[in-house]
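Support case: adenosine-5'-diphosphate complex. Customer-provided input:
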Amino acid sequence: MHFNELNLSQELIQAVEELGFTEMTEIQQKSIPLLLEGKDVIGRSNTGTGKTAAFGIPAVESITEADKKNVTVLILCPTRELAMQAHEEIRKFAKFKRIVKAVSVYGGASMERQIFELKRGANIVIGTPGRIMDHIRRKTLKLNNLRCVILDEADEMLNMGFREDIESILSEVPTERQTVLFSATMPPDILAITEKYQNNPIHIKIKSSQKTVELIEQFYFEVAMGRKTDALKLLLYAYSPSSSMVFCNTKKMVDELTEELVKSGFKASGIHGDMKQSQRTQVMNGFKNKSIEILVATDVAARGIDVSGVDAVFNYDLPQDNEYYIHRIGRTGRAGRTGTAYTLISGRKQFYELREIEKYIKADIQEKSLPKKSEIISIRKENIINEISDCKNVSKDAYNIIDRLASKGIDYRETAARIISEKLNIESLPEFDIPQPLKKGRKEKTVKIDINIGRNKRIAPNFILGALVDATGMSGRDFGKIDIFDTHTTVEIPETEKDYILDSTNPMKINGNKVEVKLYNGNVSAMKGKRPEKPKFDRRKSAYGNRKKSDIYSDYIPNRKNRTKKRH
Ligand code: ADP
Ligand code: MG
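Agent response - structure generated as follows:
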């Protein structure tokens, strides 16, 4: 079903067209018409299926001239990155509808700026629950004219300990309203919220697509932190697939990796959502006609790509969703042909994530070690022998060149040797110096902070992480090991960020409890005289599992240097 079958206003149709959307995704087809009618909806669908547009388009469409200065739609997101992302997308939908003013509010950013923006008049507000509560308390966000509340990634918000905030928000808004909830899973907590705050909601569930992956051989390589690029080059060099795809999780990584590969002489091109449609088409055509041998892509950009004869798929980053793994490796082994999928992992966390994928796809992913230099050379030799034996188009000019070289004293054997050396390219091998798995983990210097809340308050690591991410605006990845003791919790943080973290977490609330955050000196008073307790949770083994949002949207996080500059 096409977007223009929806009876949307001209402004919206134009904006959607400009975004290059034509067909609606399944969740969009099912939910947009209901949302436009003002119905309460519970939507369940995998990541990357276009949920933002599913609620964003009706939200923008619903704003009228009369709503100019009133907050009419409120969108709750679990993290700053997701709030920023939803904001950005909504701004695009509202491009031709001037009366729409969307504002986003989240922790770790200037309060004054947000207050200023809200005061100027916003009709759509997007934010994290903690910061929204903050604005409600300060009366800088008034919700008495609210018509619609949207909970995006509701399960994730509950995982992060936002239940209390969500419930306070829902009980403070007018009861005559539309309540919309999107979630990847439906745990009992969500159903409880639904029951309490929604009005005859309509359930929409989109089944995840399952597909056989039997013809695809799957391997993984464990490489040292920071050495994935070298490892990938090594593999490309060793196996020299004539057509392969490399998957990364962020647009930035696609750009960086493509540049690296091109620099090393590979025929690679990147594709991602920030590129113009014309550019993307050009790259896709190149990949189809095999002039581009390596396509580096994000999941979203590669969705639905159907190119025959892809020999290998490389997962440079682990997919954020098990389902993506199937989609990715399904780019090879099409139409009954065999294919190979290689996954690169660094560190224990990724190792556990890979195990999860294995369980999900119910297939074996075998460990392989990176090829040694001698092996690479013998593989290259074989390939060159095959390539030259199979070569059918020999030009007359080639003989002419050989004869001219011979007349200069370079005989046939010597000519052939020179050309083959070029193909072998052994000189460049030392650069691909074999990356060894690094057992030590991250190199960055870390310190610990101590938070005065622990097991006694039934705290789980993801509550702690959620609160830290919300308060600092940093990525979940920036935080290390979380150890929860009876009355306190320690969290590993990068040393360079300690002042900022202490500054932005005092005060902070975790699951409704006001907490104090201090630098940990290994000697908390509550522990004095006792043997150190054994921590109960280790985040690396539990908590976020395979779906870690802070990682997923990490390309929306400015890098640390830039971020530090922006802080006040
Ligand atoms: P989700 O929230 O379900 O994980 P998103 O809303 O983030 O998914 O959408 C994923 C990507 O798909 C975004 O880049 C978005 O712009 C794009 N997208 C959404 N709907 C469509 C559509 N109908 N056609 C093409 N691209 C779409
Ligand atoms: Mg989403």
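The pocket of magnesium ion (ligand 2) is lined by residues 51-52, 152 (CB under 6 Å).

Case will auto-close in a few days if no follow-up is received.
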